[in-house]
User: Fold DUF4124 domain-containing protein from Alloalcanivorax marinus.
Amino acid sequence: MNTVRALLTAVLVVLAAPALGAKYYKWVDENGVTHYDTQPPRGTSAEEVSTHRSASSDQPEALERLREQREAAARADEAARQQQARQQRAAEQPDQARQEECEQYRRNLETLQNKPVVRVKNPDSGEMEVIDQERRAQMLERTRAAVAFCDGRPAP
Assistant:
């Protein structure tokens, strides 16, 4: 029984092979109807159609772009959820939320003043990046102003 089945499968494969290698043509007739056949029509131009499917040369790049887009969307969703949670907490417990925010500003100021190299998370890629001196100076200025506000003093 298995031998008959294997033989039948082999015969079907052999018979199907010419169809897999055959050329097919596509054309649209005068009524706008699209036709496909193994022979091109006489007197009408036809387009040769590929019958085998292979991966396109840009498929790996397209898949990588799709993966990156999905990761970026997931990061954006998470950031939005965190922002919403912060806003809800600030509405429910404003004093505690403000105190925690001020403590974070103080830690950030300490890092900006004392660490020779400072890295921040890129919101687009999610990767850590070293900040340049110009950006560091801007961050220092904003953070000092926030800490001064937290301490009830005028901004420097």
Remarks:
- The mean pLDDT is 83.
- Strands lie at 24-28, 34-37, 47-49, 119-121, 128-130.
- The radius of gyration is 33 Å.
